[in-house]
Amino acid sequence: MAKTLFDKVWDAHIVKKVEGDQDMIYIDKHFIHEVTSPQAFAELKKRDLPIYRKENMVATPDHNVPTLNQHLPITEDLSRNQVDTLLKNCAEHNIDIYELGHENHGIVHVIGPELGITKPGMTIVCGDSHTSTHGAFGAIAFGIGTSQVAMVMASQCLLQSKPKVMRITVDGDLNPGVGAKDVILYIISKLGTGGGTGYFVEFAGSTIRQLSMEGRMTICNMSIEMGARGGMIAPDEITLEYMKGRDFAPKQEVWSDFEAYCTSLKTDEDAQFDMEYNFDAKDIAPMITYGTNPGMGIGIDEQIPSLAEVEQVDSFKKSLNYMGFEAGEKLIGKPINWVFIGSCTNSRIEDLREVAAYIKGKKKADNVNAIIVPGSRRVEQQAKEEDLHKVFEEAGFLLREPGCSACLAMNEDKIPEGEYCVSTSNRNFEGRQGKGSRTLLSSPLMAAAVAIAGEIVDYRSHLN
Amino acid sequence: MDKFKTLRSKLVHLPMHNIDTDQIIPARFLKATDRKGFGDNLFRDWRYDQNNNLIDGFPLNDPSTQSAEILVAGKNFGSGSSREHAAWAIYDYGFKVVVSTFFADIFKGNALNNGLLPVQVSQEFYEKLLDLQSKEEVELEVDLESQKISVAGKDISEQFEINPYKKKCLLNGYDDIDFLVSNKSEIEKYESTRNAFAN
């Protein structure tokens, strides 16, 4: 029977079928971080259970680490305690960890792919919803809760109902100045934040095929923002090219076998999906959000919908009230004081290069605080090798050390109450970047342009 | 995990849609290393103002709802972050059931793993319930065995769906860990056939 990519990978991981539609599936790689793992370690201890496969686990602290002076002890007590707890737990169980300052340290969803740990055909979980990022390699990757972290620690398995499968096809060449982030913000604006609930999503089509791995990761990363469990993209020559030579990628002597295996990881021609959507790349403009969920996005030259255009009027009004915007107005020209370039969505070297290319020879506006937080130590090193740090410095942007940072403001990097931040992260929920902060999600290019202009701007007229 | 069989209780209604887990428990409260006490910060920034005073008008702050064990909310409840702390906070606060017209997947799974029952109702039931609640004090009855939710003393009820395995777990207070660990020999058998590139 013809199978989807998702079916192939899922079926290859079924240990056994269990009553009530549940499959017991095997997890190939389990990433852990400091925030959602301590209670899971405690649960195993309470039950006197060992870690079943420590070699399938990789740990890194990322959520609440400072992005300045990482060589010094963490000053905030609760954050330090969580990071120390992770270190202690990993030492006790002999689990691989890339701690602060380690050359491989970074955001868990950046380092997995970057080190070649993430591979096509794998099942990957982490106690973090943006685990969907790893799906860009043709893996089934999804976020789990802490109880499930404990289950995977104890058995390397999870009980799961098989989700339905959706395909989203985007075809055609992207317009100038439009990138992967705009594509996914556009899709979420069309499907809504619950449009993918109950589904795993395969992204396909010529637009997706032309994207770099960094772009594909951005797309899969945000598939959770439309409610999907995860997103995935079939591996191809771009995937293989990206992986070649990475620390944990298959070695030269088995590379041709690996290539052959990856070639089998694609949806069969006659395979049926439970739901299909098709989009045309030429309809996609640079995107920005105006509200308090990632589905509330518009093209940069569009207007915020009017009250007559929306279904949930009360929730919509509450959202605009929080943001300080009016229904029906445009965003262009709105002053912005904060720009955050970072997060597991957009903190990879390609994102930093794009920002540097735009701001080179320019200066940020006086009213703007522009912060760049690389996704990993390796991204930071690469940026320095390419002299991007000089470009940032000359333009008045601050380059920090790696971590999740102002994406969720668990560390010191918070946007002040009432202030607007154009952010390359993934969530614009109330208070996400600090209590009372107001977030507008965008691509790195948009964020760079806003930092220079000091206000929301349609940068397409400034592109060469 | 605590068992769940039946519940009759007053309700608290949050009329918003798309309530995300950052609202249920803001990230700055996720720094604990145990599971206790998250209820104090449930809906923190909707319940309290800058000076830590209760905000009038937020339904959880209504004195008449303090004993309610059922939370009713708009559609797409629990979207966003996978933080299980959201389910812990709701349960720790004292709720045993959450009712919505639909739930985000990860939240639903987290709730079920903690003895918190997510009951998905039809739009029609939800609207009838709210209409009635605007006129009089309402109590809901939830019976897991028969998978039925009803308005106490009224002819308003409906069946709800739950995975049969998860239902059994909840009725008996089991979780998945013991079951998974008891399958060790099958897991080892699977591992012997694993794809070489899955390491």
CATH superfamily of the largest domain in chain A: Aconitase, domain 3
The fold-level CATH name of the largest domain in chain A is: Aconitase, domain 3
Strands in their spatial order, largest beta sheet of chain A: 5-4-3-6-7
CATH class of the largest domain in chain A: Alpha Beta
Mean pLDDT of chain B: 95
Query: What average pLDDT do the residues of chain A reach?
Result: 97
Strand content of chain A: 15-25%
What keywords describe this structure?
heterodimer, A: alpha/beta, Aconitase, Domain 2, Aconitase, domain 3, 3 domains, 15 helices, 19 strands, globular, B: 199 residues, alpha/beta, 7-stranded mixed β-sheet
Please provide a written account of the structure.
The complex is a heterodimer of chains A (464) and B (199). Chain A has 464 residues and is α/β, with parallel strands linked by helices. Chain A has helices at residues 5-11, 38-47, 77-93, 108-114, 146-155, 180-191, 206-210, 213-221, 237-243, 255-264, 313-323, 349-359, 377-385, 388-395, 444-453, and strands at 14-18, 22-26, 29-32, 57-59, 96-97, 123-126, 140-143, 157-161, 164-171, 199-204, 230-232, 275-280, 287-289, 297-299, 338-341, 369-372, 398-399, 420-423, 438-441. In chain A, the strands form five sheets. A five-stranded parallel beta sheet of chain A has the order 5-4-3-6-7. Chain A has a five-stranded parallel beta sheet with strand order 17-16-15-18-19, with helices on one face. Chain A has a four-stranded parallel beta sheet with strand order 11-10-9-12. In chain A, strand 1 and strand 2 form a beta hairpin. In chain A, helix 2 crosses helix 5 (146-155), helix 6 runs parallel beside helix 8 (213-221) and helix 12 packs parallel to helix 15. The termini of chain A are far apart. The model of chain A has no long low-confidence stretch (mean pLDDT 97). In chain B, strand 3 (97-100), helix 4 (105-112) and strand 4 form a beta-alpha-beta unit. A seven-stranded mixed beta sheet of chain B has the order 4-3-2-1-5-6-7. Chain B starts with 5 loop residues before the first strand and ends in an 8-residue tail after the last helix. By secondary structure, chain B is α/β, with parallel strands linked by helices. The interface between A and B is large, with 78 and 62 residues.
